[in-house]
Structures are given as structure tokens and as C-alpha cells.
Specification:
Blueprint: H1 2-12, H2 16-27, H3 30-41, H4 47-61
């Protein structure tokens, strides 16, 4: 499943937040969202970009929690 999402993210040129959300939604695991949020936090980008990526992760996963 992870390999499929990585391939799709690369082909579709998805950003990190969207790709993480798709993976979390497909796996139906909230733990993926937490792990992805941690990884996004370590990307070294501006705080606004990190917050935007985390929001996309939650939105694309279908999560109803913050």
C-alpha cells in the first residue's frame, strides 16, 4: 500500500500533506496522520507551509479530529 501511494504521489506530483492524507485514508489508521505530521514537522520548511501540509493531511485522510 505504501509503495502504491508513493508511486501515485510521484506520478501525480502530490505534496507531502496530500500524499500522507491519501495514505492515512487508505490505511484507515489515525497513527499514519500522527507519523506524517511528525515527518512534515521535520521537513525544515516555514511554519506556515508545515501547517498547510498538516491541514491537507487531515483533510485528505477524511479525519474528523485535529
Amino acid at each position: 500500500m505504501v509503495a502504491l501511494v508513493l508511486a501515485a504521489a510521484s506520478i501525480l506530483k502530490l505534496d507531502a500533506g496530500t500524499a500522507a492524507g491519501v495514505l492515512a485514508g487508505g490505511a484507515m489508521e489515525s497513527a499514519v496522520i500522527g507519523t506524517a505530521s511528525e515527518a512534515i514537522g521535520r521537513l525544515g520548511s516555514a511554519a506556515e507551509a508545515r501547517d498547510r501540509a498538516r491541514a491537507k493531511c487531515r483533510r485528505w485522510s477524511g479525519a474528523r479530529f485535529a
